[in-house]
Design a protein that fits this description.
mainly alpha, 17 helices, transmembrane helix
Amino acid sequence: MLHLSDNIYDGFLEQGQFISRGKEPADTEPLGDDNFNQIFADITTSFTILIGIFFPSVTGIMAGSNRSGDLADAQKSIPIGTICAIITTSTVYLSSVLLFAGTVDNLLLRDKFGNSIGGKLVVANIAWPNQWVILIGSFLSTLGAGLQSLTGAPRLLQAIAKDGIIPFLSPFAVSSSRGEPTRALILTLCICQCGILLGNVDVLAPLLSMFFLMCYGFVNLACALQTLLRTPNWRPRFKYYHWSLSFIGLSLCIAVMFMTSWYLALIAMAMAGIIYKYIEYRGAEKEWGDGIRGLALSAARFSLLRLEEGPPHTKNWRPQILILVKLTSDLLPKYRKLFSFAAQLKAGKGLTICASVIGGDYTRSCGEAMAAKQSLTKTMEEERVKGFAEILVVRDITEGLSNLVQSAGLGGLKPNTVILGWPYGWRQSEDDRTWQVFLETVRNVTAARMALLVPKGINFFPDSTDKVVGNIDIWWIVHDGGLLMLLPFLLKQHRTWKKL
């Protein structure tokens, strides 16, 4: 009990201070010029630093789930095995701490490399019947932990490579003839060797702790989000699970990260953010969903329902544009400048829908409709129009345009402005439908109480990359609701019209 009472209080030191019983500055200074026999602290220690060093030794929590494919009944084995493993290891670790505190002197405990006893292990000296029991056990334990990591990590790396989420890892998706991830194993060995060559595990341990904590934090966050968003494919079977436990786990992970080292925590988070944005930028196809998309879907649903709570105020009016596009026989937009014009109005920050109508029967023309939609989407991307593309297949073109005017949009994001191309050559055309379709569309837009923009001479309008100079002349129409004043203002927010 004497040793236990001595060891119950901390004995943290700064780097270079000498180990002594007292904590006064005089006790931790060298006793003389010849300090050969004095033992000093090689690193600065504190409670949070020691957490970062110790944490990698308890990171085998997900070892079972990493090898779930090899389990006969993973649903039953993983929870039972993981909980039993945590209880067992926690009991062993905590009992070891208490036993060391009760049997070993305070000064010897802080002698990190055992210099005072000839560089030997303390636990080996007190082992029964011989010190080789501990030495062999430590060797086998270290070897087992290393082999466990070399078994799980390559398979995890191979799974990531097979998902294709990080394209440059694709060579490591290959398996050997026996189904072993040989390439991933070689890469894992190289990474491990780099850590060994550092010569001091204490330098690497805090950074490893950050990545483990961030991994566990993201797992907890994903579980909590899936539960709160009520995702249909998320069906946890563990009866003691609750989303609040996941949030508690996430909070603890973040707290321990910043307690251990705030700058290493920021570095790890920055690296994770860079990897995430890289995956998002490359647009890799993946067979799994993500909680962020579910969160965005719930936020969009909530916002749409909020927009339906009352009629919009006049001051909140902004153009929600529906572009009615005429397609050529090659399914390309006939008037591409309509897209440029809509892009130049994007200062209104409203919704943009580009729609077109194809004559025929949908069961026979669905492939043509999909190709036309892809063509519209590609044109929108090239002209930097952020919005949606829609194709409607109907037997009557006029009826189809009427349906688009009536039903395009959703809730509070229904279009209130229609952009329509001018019917060139209608005087010379022998087909009366050229101007009849246009007139019927104008009547439908008017009946829907929507604003109508018909840019005549659209082919002479500037591209989004051009810069025009001069004036915008407004031909005032009484009782137009101020639309003719708003449109020039929105156009002048774009760089093409900014110098007017």
